[in-house]
Amino acid sequence: MPADAVTPATAGPLARFGLGTAAVGRPGYITLGRELDLPGERSVAALRDRTHALLDAAYAAGVRYFDTARSYGRAEEFLAGWLDARPEAAAAVTVGSKWGYTYTADWRVSGVAAHEVKEHSVAVFERQAAETRALLGRRLDVYLVHSVTPDSPALTDPALHARLADLAAEGVRVGLSTSGPAQAGTIRAARKVSVAGRPLFTAVQATWNLLEPSAGPALAEAHEAGWLVVVKEALANGRLAGRNATGADTAALRAVAARTGAGADAVALAAAAARPWADVVLSGAATEEQLASNLTAARLSLGPADLAALDALAGEPGAYWRHRARLAWS
Prior knowledge:
Layout: E1 17-20, H1 34-37, H2 44-61, E2 65-67, H3 75-85, H4 87-90, E3 94-99, E4 101-103, E5 116-118, H5 122-136, E6 142-148, H6 158-169, E7 173-178, H7 183-191, E8 194-195, E9 198-199, E10 203-207, H8 216-224, E11 228-232, H9 251-260, H10 264-273, E12 280-283, H11 288-295, H12 304-311, H13 317-325
Helix pairs in contact: 2-3, 2-11, 7-8, 9-10
């Protein structure tokens, strides 16, 4: 499906939601409570089966955006296999992936110096784009530079920009994902990048959640400029899921959940989807039960008083990102 087909105005409410594969494409990640979510045996076969079951459930529910990355272990491979086996679904969904991190954990959780290594060079782009194409072929709709920060050469390297422009000329929507407390500045810098007088980037996947909403104004500007805006980490790596949202800092979330009868996870996702600039909000579910709970957000209508109460959860961005950096891979 062309990336431009991701338009909430032309589809049902579930089209506002996507499924990310970071939590199930590899045995280790930083989501809280993974030991409760994944099988004891995290073999390739077991996680392939889990990924395919989640993709089946999401597609059946109406989800049409699927997100993966080169660094998500074998997630691209798992998604490609699912698409191969379901040609009708393959023709109906939008597929986004990312390059710029190389997975280095060798299917291990512990005893790993680094689970992924970031490099935004032309050489890495050419290698990883070829790897992505070998798996996804022409089904790649959106390709993002993974985890861009203000110091990334993805914002300044003209040779890389030329290669990305070549990919965009093939019909792939080229963009970036962002990370860290300076997301807003990164997005605004990316909007200034052009090749032959044309804007290079037209998509962004950014962290936005009730604890860390600082990228919101820059995302609104990108949306206004015609960019595809995808929200990641809306549950703050599990911190806003019901089983973990137990502290004083999430009391307002629990109160809105109690009032609406929804799960805290659904409220947090619905709050993200309520932003007019958010085209797609990703679920990072690792189980079918989590996915079903997440997707109830599509039926949840939050009023101005709810949103105002939830806005009070926002903290200082630097503190949020320092906390995230301390999360253990498990």
